[in-house]
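Late entry, written up from scratch paper. The run itself happened at the end of the previous shift, but nothing got recorded in the book at the time, so transcribing now.
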Amino acid sequence: VGLAHAHHDDRRDHVEDEFLRRPGLQAGPAGEDLPPDNHLDRALDRLNGVVMLLCALALVAAAVVLTESVFVRYFLHATTDWQDEATGFLLVGATFMSASYVQGQRGHVGIEALAGLLPPSVDRARKIFVDVASFLFCGFFAWKSWTLTHEAWVEGTVTSSTWAPPLWVPY
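Output as recorded:
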């Protein structure tokens, strides 16, 4: 473990030194180096921060709704009809809305355990493959989500529960 960690640190130092030698770079808000006047990156960072905050709030809301559901069912002996469905919508929404941030941090299926074992050229190919596969998945997912959203909107489809929210909202 110590050797792999030392190797990883050496590669990181080399990349940082190489990056810092480039003219016109400055430190970004999280300590990373950004090209000067990179307004798009900063705007996307702020947008991702807002989305991550909303995802965190959705997770807290899901926990509160489920706790309320358990309390109402077991202590007040009342039926609950919307809590499970609302929790599912909140959890799925938080999962997919946070995916862009996670992908931007290379937190998805990149198999990072291999990064320290592979030669740099093979590691670059691995990263390109993962990026292309992720792009294709996101493209397919966006297309399918659009078709389902359009269909639910046009047909006025709702869920089968007594709450019956419109299905175009979660799609």
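Confidence is low (pLDDT under 50) at residues 1-28.
(Scratch paper discarded after transcription.)
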